[in-house]
Design a protein that fits this description.
Five copies of one chain form a homopentamer.
Chain A: E1 2-9, E2 12-16, H1 22-27, E3 31-38, H2 42-52, H3 56-64, E4 70-74, E5 77-88, E6 91-102, E7 105-111, H4 118-126, H5 128-131, H6 135-148, H7 150-170, H8 174-203, H9 218-281, H10 296-318
Parallel strand pairs in A: 3-7
Antiparallel strand pairs in A: 1-2, 1-3, 4-5, 5-6, 6-7
């Protein structure tokens, strides 16, 4: 579905144009066309290919999806793939954005994304002095928007880890903790696969030989790169702490086992000793003088209680109970 | 066994030719020869060496097999080795494809592979405008085919991991889980050894100084490279999760031990306390007033039952039973 | 809040100047302006942007904060972000310093930091022969001060680890140890995220193509770089030892479990054997000749005591008790 | 001991020559001398140094031994150190080969090696068209021979791991498994230390600026490099799997502990319940009506047996027994 | 304290000179001055700074100490910091050597080192043909001496690991093993921090753009580099094996726990079964025909013994006892 199809000149919106007019506007050196498509059909992509003169391999990638994030040069034009990551419960879903950028055009194709780039277009139109930079600036604005969406995801994962840490150290629900740590790790991996390839790709947009469409906006792409590195660093930290939290959880489980063993041992002792004493006075020897003493029965009961009381206090002090 | 031996001109099939004619056709600048061999004998390889003028070291590699994936330049020609990985039950089997590519010829040699490259040839013949690119395009088409075969393998391994995850978190069959995780890791390793060396090798076919036969088709090789990186990334992710799943499994085993210990302790308590009480009333003291009370025996039995009921309820609530 | 606003000429303080005069002094080739701001309002930053002609992206970074440490070139000027790490109990807090350095000016912006850079300014003013190097030297002096603050933090963490090691090997409070090791790891991560990016960034200030403002002071920046590498190395070592300490702690917990199991087994034996003997003499067989021997009861008690004494001694020797 | 001392011209053996003649033959541009020494004395090395004009540092390295594998250039000549690894039971023994290669000579010095390089010389003399390449080809032939000796070692280690895997998953002899995995890891390390440094070293013999003696034979050295990378890859895989096998073994041990605990609990239950019942009927209450019923004693025995049978069946079904 | 202060010309000792004469001798192009200081006072360093014209930052580093190993260029002169590692019981102590090398001078400053460099000077003076290379050769000789001191340390740590391995596999003193492995790891880290930075630093003394003072002696510095890489490789291997030994130790501890549990279970069975039988015959049923059979009591005792004997034999065979 074609969301927008607008021609710009000198940083200002010229007109909403029809799809068939695109190839005409693209030829004018002083203006550029910015088209946004969403969940496109093959026909729409084929039309775009013709109107903009896109490379078949790039169109195939945008059509098939499941690409890794990348920035590829096809002659003077750039083909960019980015992943938007959205958290839904225990899942980290990935939506794909492909951007074709030529000197005179920008074509963004998004698939399976909830929120589009209307805000990007609105903001760009409010700042004509920046939009004047042309298609390279639009590419920057789109990338910046995608990258900005990573931060809340990272924050959400950090909050999740903090909650888990609390539960781990309080020793509660170790089984659920393992499962959630595993899920968290999985979500981190999805996010990393979205971010890492872009770092290298954006680096080529401002350092060394810069593609023509990005010239004059290198500092903006460096800013995007910098944000990506920050996300990546946060992910690395999280990843490291998740791994540590996993082994902490195992230690806590083993510790809990120690506790159980100790309590088991303590209670067993409290029961075993009176049983032994009772056993002794249950023997059938003819000559057991204690048996004939009237106060001996309550005395033995008292001794049993006293021993247990003593053991209980000792176990308590030793932290076994 | 020689599967095919065809001369092409201007992107179209010229003729099926005899092996002895190869050296003749290879000399014609305007056409190229595409030969496919399967499980070759040494004589066949020797014939090929003579007809195409191949380098002895490369022929030796193709003959001995057990090479690692690579792309090597011998003068103007390329020698490519690729691994096809096929899953058969718990095993990941590797078949080897060697491709000799010169300006005017392509020779593919496959060993121990179930499915050949007939589909590649058919598709190439249906697209003469692409086949016109010459032997470099054929090399691309073969590589693309090999790389496309990695994706279903990765998918199968991902499904396998998901099944294992479910079983791990449900706590069932920990022993089998360990063994299957180990097997999964082994299969991942086999696949990685097929993919990783190709990444570096294909990179040299489109970036920097490009070999002559690949010139004009760099964008296609970049696409192959990109797919390989995607496979590699997926493998890295899988590998990471398999490692994590292993330590999760260990945690689950340790947790299960805790459960067993707790249940053991609980049941032991339920039996030990009545035993102790019975022991006490089994003592042989002369003066034990309770022994003479008629309702005392059922009362003691009731007390035993009551204590056990209380303990049972408490253990239940504590999650020990 | 503007802390200082001073013009320098030839290595000596010229005058405290008003904010509005900045742009005027900056134009004079022979002098430079050094301004220090703390927790700035947006208006203050906007004023600075105008007076110094700063790049909007850099000002935005300084204003928003939460940047990663970096050194960025904007034309002839440098934008530097550094993190100051302060330990408060179990937390490692991060404060941010941004420094804008042009040929004729230095502007430092600090946020949420306890101690400012008054000492840096005082020392610089006492050494006019160094201050004569200009704004590049001031940037060095600020970086040097920030980096010097990392050393006591590293030392504190090393002391913390040593205390933990002692507790781990004495086997005391394994639960607290785990938690503190986890916290320690977290603090190390915060510090690493402050230090690592600066290493690469400072390297570019003395090696290869050196930015204009740093020329003539490369050896100073190499010194800063060297200190950062030293901090980084110490952090790597700490990190490694913390990981090892964690697994040592797990081993100690498992060992402790062994101890408990052994003691449990030993005490159980001491009780079970007399119980068994008592049970035997509690049987109701008619013909049990021992039962009629008068000294048999004390003899059996003595035998019980003797067996227990023997077992106790043996367990002691085996280290089970 | 001098094993061989032969002069070659135009790819064919000229003559066995005496040591004192070496310096004379080395001067002739059209021929080269190939000397093989084994476990040399210092005098022999000194003689060689004089005759060939070797660099003192290189001779010192060859004399002292315990060098790491390397290829060093001394002016126009190359000094190569390689390790041959031989498995003897649980040990991986390392023998050292030093090769001095000049434009007109090759001197191989081997220490502590069982099998020498006679086969290399024989094969080279059978292929004069290759030997014509000169001393560089001889160096290749020696390296190729050394590298070919790594493959059976890797294979032996792979077989060893497979045997261990079987034993680990069958749960037998966990203690021996740990020790053998540790030994296996040690042997892998020895092999890696032999292989890794050579990879980098051989790379310099065919890529970039190639030493003069290797010119014209680059493709051969690339082949050696390729084989080394293959060995290295196999070692990495092995190393990874050994690490995994170790943690699998730990999991199996923990699992075995669970089994033991469960069996222990089960058998304890089978004994404890009859004991409790017997205890109850051993109480001395006056009014216990069951005691007077004649069939009660066998009935109680039957109840005990029935309960145990039921428990036994249940434990069996639950897999505890 | 100034240990030596000697001028050399043409590879031979010219004279012991006074400190004040240094600046004079340094000016003569044909000779060089070699000064050795030990635990210097600030005044001594200040004197040296003036006499040799050293860079203040380098002098500051030498004075403060606690530098990381490095080689820094200050104009034409080199500033080198090296760590000497000495083992004292469980500690690895680090002493620091700073060497200032100019075209005409070498100044070595050592701190807290037991053994100085007298041997280096003596050997250099015995080999005038080498000393003729000038100050660069002296720097090499000092570095070589420092690096040679690493080998016995590595050997000592290897011996320590071997002893530990033996103890680990024999299962003795697991607690002490953990602590010693931890200490070993710590010592390895100290050594690595001494060696690693030097590897990179020495590489710059023979490869690429070589500092002037090292020209003509590159092959010697390559030798030092090579030795450092060898030390580093040995350390990596040790580090790897220490990590593995730690996890082996944990496995052995867990195994030991299994053994204890099995023995505990076995002995418990040997006691529990007679207790149960005794309990049965302790019941007070009126009609228990066995009780009246005279030989029944010894028969029951015999049965108890027989069962225990059978169980004991079975446990033995199963390896539980």
């Amino acid at each position: 579905m074609i969301v927008n199809c607008v021609a710009y000149q000198d940083g200002r919106k010229l007109a909403d144009i029809r799809v068939e007019e695109i190839s005409e506007y693209v030829k004018r050196p002083e203006c550029f066309v910015w088209v946004a498509i969403k969940d496109p059909t093959n026909e729409e992509l084929e039309t775009m290919r013709r109107e903009f003169g896109l490379h078949p391999l790039a169109v195939e990638d945008a059509s098939h999806g499941h690409q890794r994030p990348k920035v590829e040069e096809y002659g003077d034009s750039l083909f960019t793939v980015m992943h938007v990551v959205e958290l839904h419960g225990d899942e980290a879903d990935v939506a794909e954005v492909s951007v074709f950028t030529g000197v005179n055009y920008v074509l963004s194709v998004r698939k399976g994304m909830e929120h589009g780039f209307v805000a990007v277009r609105e903001r760009a139109e409010r700042e004509p002095e920046l939009l004047r930079h042309g298609s390279g600036f639009v590419l920057y604005a789109l990338m910046d928007n995608v990258v900005d969406r990573y931060f809340p995801v990272v924050d959400a994962l950090e909050v999740e880890l903090e909650k888990l840490e609390e539960r781990i150290f309080s020793g509660s629900s170790p089984k659920a903790n393992i499962e959630e740590l595993y899920n968290l790790k999985h979500k981190l991996m999805v996010l990393r696969h979205a971010v890492e390839p872009l770092i290298e790709a954006t680096h080529r947009l401002y350092g060394g030989r810069v593609p023509q469409v990005c010239q004059g906006t290198q500092e903006y792409f460096r800013d995007v790169h910098d944000h990506l590195v920050r996300v990546s660093q946060a992910l690395d930290g999280l990843r490291d702490m998740v791994g540590t939290a996993m082994s902490v959880n195992l230690s806590m489980i083993t510790l809990a086992e120690n506790e159980v063993t100790k309590r088991l041992a303590s209670y067993a002792a409290l029961v075993a000793i009176p049983t032994m004493i009772a056993g002794i006075y249950g023997m059938n020897f003819k000559y057991m003088p204690e048996l004939d003493i009237p106060w001996m029965y309550p005395a033995v009961l008292a001794i049993m209680a006293a021993i247990d009381y003593y053991l209980y206090a000792r176990f308590r002090r030793a932290g076994w109970l």
